[in-house]
Amino acid sequence: MMPFPGGIEATPNGTLIFSIVAAVLYAFAIDRPPSWKRSAAKTLAVALLAVLAYLQGGPVLLVAALVLSALGDAFLSQDGDKAFLGGLGSFLAAHLAYVALFAAAGGGVPALTGTPWHIVAALTMAVFALGMLRLLWPHIGSDLKVSVAVYVTAIFAMGVTALTTSNTLVIGGAILFMASDALLAIEKFLAEAVERHRVWMRYAVWVLYYLAQLAITLGFLLAA
């Protein structure tokens, strides 16, 4: 059963299927050397979600966040520090777009403090963010410390604002996004310590990340 009317022949459903196919193709190419085919698969997976959001009249901020994420994917599909910084900047902008989107769609502070589980979830996210910074800090070069601190703050803000939406898919997507970013940071900055785990971590990063983007996208489009 397809999520949008019209069956498999409908443009929205077809776009979603092509996005999933691109995500699967990239999963098979994760350990291969950088190439235009590998970059195309990674970039298209989320870029097509942006197209889907646009076609379905989704919020402008959702489309913007997905486009910025796809740009970040294009950068991170390449090797090197410049590509990493380009990806970091793109995803920082994407997280800020998500923060604005979730804040606009959510119930604000009253929603965040309305139930015990919201409070516990927000505090857990805060502990998680601080724990990640403490773990990574000794391993981050002085030129990246500020950038990483700002990025972790943005991730935390995204998670907390997602809690105010009371949208299960959006909240789940934000949590998956945080988990994916955490694994990616550990792989990047603690490379020697996690060397024997890097293969499964790379796959986990991609699966968690794509499912996060998919959940957030569908959370907004299906609730409309």
Name a few traits of the molecule.
single chain, 224 residues, mainly alpha, 9 helices, 77% helix, globular
Largest sheet: none
Ends: how far apart?
Answer: 19 Å
What is the alpha-carbon Rg in Å?
A: 17 Å
Q: How many helices does DSSP assign?
A: 9
* Average pLDDT over all residues: 94
Classification by helices and strands: mainly alpha
Descriptive overview:
The chain is mainly alpha-helical. It has one domain. 77% of the residues lie in helices and 0% in strands. The protein has helices at 11-29, 36-55, 60-76, 81-105, 108-112, 116-136, 145-163, 168-189, 198-221. The longest helix is centred in the middle third of the chain and has 25 residues, at 81-105. The model has no long low-confidence stretch (mean pLDDT 94).
Set down the secondary structure blueprint.
Blueprint: H1 11-29, H2 36-55, H3 60-76, H4 81-105, H5 108-112, H6 116-136, H7 145-163, H8 168-189, H9 198-221
Q: What is shown here, in short?
A:
With about 220 residues, this protein is mainly alpha-helical. Helices cover about 75% and strands about 0% of the residues.
